[in-house]
Amino acid sequence: MKRIHPAWGVAGATFLVLLIAAAIRATASVLIVPLEHEFGWTRATISFAISVNLLFYGLMGPFCAALANRIGIRRTMVLAMGLLSASLLAATSIRSPWHLVAIWGFLVGIGSGMAALVLGAVVVNRWFTKHRGLVMGALTASTATGQLIFLPLLAHVAETDGWRWSVRIVAGAALLAVLLSLVLVRESPAQLGVPAYGDTVVKEPVRPVGNPALLALKSLARASKSEDFWLLSGTFFICGASTNGLIGTHLIPACMDYGIPEVRAAGLLATMGLFDLFGTTLSGWLSDRWDSRKLLFTYYLLRGISLLFLPQALVAGSGLLVFAVFYGLDWIATVPPTVRLASEAFGKDEGPIVFGWIVAAHQVGAGAAALGAGILRTSLGDYQLAFMISGGLCLVAALLALGVGRVKLAWSPAAAR
Question: From residue 378, how far is each of 22, 146, 327 by CA, in Å?
Answer without folding.
Answer: 27, 29, 25
